Amino acid sequence: MAAKREECLRWIKDEQKIHTTSGYGQNLESVTKNLNDQKERQNVVTSYKKTVTSLPAAEKQEAQERYDTLGLLSRKRAECLESVSQIAQLETSLGKLSVELSSTASSLVACQKDEVAPESATDGVRAATQNCIQGVKENWQWVRDLLSCADVHLQNSSDFHQFFHEVKEYTTLMPVQLRMAQDKVKIHEKTEGTNAEGQRWLLDLKELLAIFLHWQNKVEKLFDRSKKIVPVHQRIEKLEYFRPIESLANYQTNQILVKKGEELLLTDNSDSQSWQVRNVNHDEAHVPSIICLIPGPHPDAIQAAMVLRFQLLTEWTLNVKRIGKSLILFTILVLRDFNEEEIKKLKAMSPENKKATLKSLNYVEETLAPYWKGYVGFDEMQSRIQKMRTILAEQGDPKFRDEKSEKILVDRVQTEEELLKSFMTFWSQWEAYKIIVETSRQADNILIVDKWEQLKFISMEELRKLWQQGLTC
């Protein structure tokens, strides 16, 4: 049965690779093919469940967990392909437009008639001909202007969908990645405070910081983008109040003259193709909706980015507290209760090693004291550090000196010092980000963000005082 289990795990691994490396396609034909292939693959994955459930109970757990992950990947890929398929189907609409353009131009040429004008009508014909040529030219230019307007709406629609799609994906992925990394930076029941454990923990802590910074970068880029998202959904929703809009093209009728870039007031959008607008002269008329832009920002986009910011900050804050407590516990494990023989060896340590040990312990105590003083774990750690100081202050008998034990202790406390330095980097990055996020929540502090370098390390209370006193003007 072990062979069947291994075969099962191999199959799941191969399928996961296919799901994670296969593309989605970049046109209607390739996307449709990938979507159909995925539906077939989903059926295969679903039917393989019988194989997994047939394994003996003792061998099933790992296979079941990996199969469940594969099922999630399969459903997610299918869901994404359905979305991509809807985007790719716009290819048909654009294709029809291109055919219509070509058809219109072709039919106009085909139906042209040759006419000979009398000599007496030469001047009038010449003027009419020039006007006709100009009219044709201006209206083809108008179609090109409309396509330029459509390109603006295409860009805005693309940005709108991509932004909220990324928000959804980040909301799912970010906690998973952070959880996987932070699970490594933990004190376990079997932790003994060895140097090897400390070094491994140091690497894991640095990796965790790198992941937090990675997500900070992603979330902040998303927040910057959120301020530029245009509420495209409002183009297809019934207007409940007048909205300021902007014209994307020049437009003129007997009722109204609109210039490109002009600010207008949208008063009625019940007709999706023709909107009623008002200009600064209070002229009111219907204009093609395609030339109208409802500008951003979109409050929902900013709110979505802010929620991600707070989620990241919350996770970071919890880790600062948890890792700080774990560091204290690790120090306590390093400074365990020594027996009489070990105390004799500690007293007999060389002056250089005693100095190095005390230097590291002093750094640990002084660095943690401002933040953790009063916490029961810190009090216990401080008590053990003081006990170590008392032991090392005594001159021991050289015959008890054990260089191997000395090196182990010195390495452990120096690793603890390195851990703490790495933790303080973790702390300072968290503190800086906390101020960024908290400042964005304070309406009366919005205008002082240009003073970031001077203000990033002060408290919110001090920040408010500076604002109120006018010191940042």
Overview in brief:
This protein is mainly α.
Characterise the protein shown here.
- With 473 residues, the protein is mostly helical.
- It folds into 4 domains: 2-90, Methane Monooxygenase Hydroxylase, Chain G, domain 1, CATH 1.20.58.60; 159-229 and 303-441, no CATH class; 232-295, SH3 Domains (SH3 type barrels, Roll), CATH 2.30.30.40; 442-473, no CATH class.
- The chain has 14 helices and 7 strands.
- The chain has helices at residues 2-21, 28-47, 49-53, 57-88, 90-110, 122-182, 195-226, 299-334, 340-347, 351-372, 376-393, 403-441, 452-455, 460-469, and strands at residues 243-247, 251-252, 257-258, 263-268, 274-278, 284-288, 292-293.
- The strands form 2 sheets. It has a 5-stranded antiparallel sheet, with no helix packed on it. It has a two-stranded antiparallel sheet with strand order 2-3.
- The radius of gyration is 35 Å and the shape is elongated.
- Mean pLDDT is 87; it is low at 444-453.
